[in-house]
Structure formats: C-alpha cells, structure tokens
Design brief:
By secondary structure, this protein is mostly beta strands. The chain contains 1 helix and 5 strands. GO terms for molecular function: single-stranded DNA binding.
C-alpha cells in the first residue's frame, strides 16, 4: 500500500517545538489549505491539517517557519483518534 501526501498551504501560527523525554525534537504546526472548488455561496473552503515533524527537521522547521508563511509538506497521512 502507498501512503504518501504532498500538501501546500500556509501556517496558521508559529510552529511549537518540544523534546520527548529521550531528547528527540518534535515540532507541530497547522497548515491551512484552500480547496480548489468553491461552495454553493461561491467561496473557497479551507482545510486545517495538523502537521508533526520529528528530529533534525523539527528543529529546522521551528527555526525557519513562521505564521502566514507558505510551506510544502511531503509525508504520510496518519489519523489519530483523540478522546475527550
């Protein structure tokens, strides 16, 4: 099976970096991606996708990416079930 995605959008806020107890860097941010099609009112809808980046790339994302900046993300889709 193939699980590969390429996303292009804008950051909704500055990335947040933290470290796991073992010392691995983890950076999270949300990417806002406009849909190609418009809705019935003629407006474009936007999807907000949470992005998680690990290790050295996490440190680079936290250092160079900022709110509103356009970013391309290549990776795999993973759905997490969040319980209230």
């Amino acid at each position: 099976m193939l699980n590969r995605a390429v996303l292009l959008g804008r950051l909704t806020k500055d990335p947040e970096m933290r470290y796991t107890p073992s010392g691995t860097a983890v950076t999270t941010f949300t990417l806002a991606i406009d849909r190609r099609m418009t809705n019935q009112q003629g407006e474009r809808e936007t999807d907000f996708l949470p992005i998680v980046v690990w290790s050295k790339l996490a440190e680079l994302c936290a250092q160079y990416l900022k709110k509103g900046q356009q970013a391309a993300v290549e990776g795999r889709i993973q759905v997490r079930n969040v319980r209230p």
